[in-house]
Amino acid sequence: MTESWVNSARRIGVDLHLELSGPGGRRAALTRALRDAVRSGRLAPGTRLPPYRSLAADLGVARNTVADAYAELVAEGWLTARQGSGTRVARGVASARSGRHESAEPQRHAVAHATEETPSHARGPRHDLRQGAPDASAFPRAAWAASYRRALLGAPSEAFGPGDPAGRRELREALTEYLARARGVRTEPDRIVICSGFGHALRLLFAGNRPGTPDGPDGPGGLSRPGSRPGRPGAGGVLRGPLGVEAYGLDFHRGLLAAAGVRTVPLPLDADGARVETLGRERAVLLTPAHQFPTGGPLHPERRAAVIDWARARDAVVLEDDYDGEFRYDRRPVGALQGLDPERVIYIGSVSKSLSPALRLGWMVLPRRCVEPVLAAKGEREGWASAPDQLALADFVAGGSYDRHVRRMRQRYRRRRDRLVAALAAHAPHIEVTGIAAGLHAVLRLPPGTEGPTVIAAARQGIALDGLAGFRHPDAQRDMTMGEGLVVGYAAPAEHAYGAALEALCGVLPRG
């Protein structure tokens, strides 16, 4: 790096004339100042921005502050970043001088950019209101990078060897403390097995249930007896069916279970969650007790106790999917069902909603008798989660960065939830909104006969969302249906594009 190049870069930073003011920290102020400079036309499309360290030195801020601001604006579509070309103002972004509607500018650019440089199957919708996706632009890059660096520098040499199929001890210890404190989970590190997410957990738990193999393990109630070795051909799985499931849930999970040869039996739902009193001869049940997916609402306390009593009487097991237990807004936190009986509940969680689905990190908190069978089912090392990623997450959790990120995102998602509710109250007051006390989505109740046409109309306007019927179990009876509605996610859109997404949504809803 030559002195003349550095001086040139510094001059670019000085010439930006950025004023860091207004609410929030230095990162928020810098992001806002850069966005305003692009929007006003002071930074023209194609303008190359200074390197992180140069702009940081000019403004008197940390390099991570500049890096995070750049990354957020790249994710929103205001900037582009390419290897060897640096960070530039996106060429398709229109400034206020052009007279275009500002809220849609980067989104239109993203579509145009995808048309030119990406295959058609990779192009995204104009407005992504699908459930289950967090705000990708809010990933804590600087804090994660710091944890990753600390983890790599401090890792023992054996961390880069074959490892332990249960996962890194450091992560299991960090999760033991965090889950006890934040979710009321009762466990110890030796009862936690690291996996690659909820789907991977299901595959491990029901390995060996495929058609043509014996009907599961030889223990009563669908649980393997100590010393059995599931996971080998003909040995059955850790659990076996039939499996009780909520009448509404992810079709993807039902598909995984069907592929494993597991028959699922739908349980009716009402305002108090799954009607667990309808459980009969099922050997296990899969529930979302903290916040039923997708209809919303926690499992009623009496039903929480009842399903534990059922599991004890049947020598059965409860699978607890705690998919977004950290994100609650208008009620006190609901502790994990696992805390009522750690030997009857398998608790499953991941970072797919709280951090990013790209990390592929999750965990199972198991009854003692399930640990060995799950490890046997896990098998070859190719299916294990990355050890460096596990070490980084351990540092991220133990150092408090995970708590800080969750609190920050809880506030952001609550504001978005409130904006959705306010927009509907103003433009579609006849639409009832439910399931909004927690989570990353809401359910919009629709008049009979309007769900299908509304989903089609939304797709034509470039709005990606889901109809409630798409989550209904195919064997659900008429008395199990929850009516018609839309499942609308409010986490995925970039901050600047959210207002336009709400406006478009209100435009396709049935009129009162």
How would you characterize this protein structure?
With 512 residues, the protein is of the alpha/beta class. Helices cover 38% and strands 12% of the residues. It has 15 helices and 17 strands. Strand 5 (243-246), helix 9 and strand 6 form a beta-alpha-beta unit. Helix 2 (26-40) crosses helix 4 (63-76) and helix 6 (141-154) crosses helix 12 (387-398).
- Helices, by number, come to 15
- Measured between the Cα atoms of the first and last residue, the distance is 65 Å
Question: What characterizes the major β-sheet?
Answer: 7 strands, mixed
Q: Decide which structural class fits the backbone.
A: alpha/beta
Sheet with most strands: strand arrangement: 4-12-11-10-9-5-6
What is the average per-residue confidence, as pLDDT, rounded to a whole number?
83
Secondary structure blueprint with pairings:
Blueprint: H1 3-15, H2 26-40, H3 52-59, H4 63-76, E1 79-82, E2 86-89, H5 105-117, E3 127-128, H6 141-154, H7 169-183, E4 192-195, H8 198-205, E5 243-246, H9 251-259, E6 264-267, E7 269-270, E8 273-274, E9 284-287, H10 301-314, E10 317-321, E11 345-350, E12 362-365, H11 368-378, H12 387-398, H13 401-427, E13 432-434, E14 441-446, H14 451-460, E15 463-464, E16 466-467, E17 484-489, H15 498-508
Parallel strand pairs: 3-15, 5-6, 5-9, 9-10, 10-11
Antiparallel strand pairs: 1-2, 4-12, 7-8, 11-12, 13-14, 14-17, 16-17
Helix pairs in contact: 1-3, 2-4, 3-4, 6-12, 7-12, 13-15
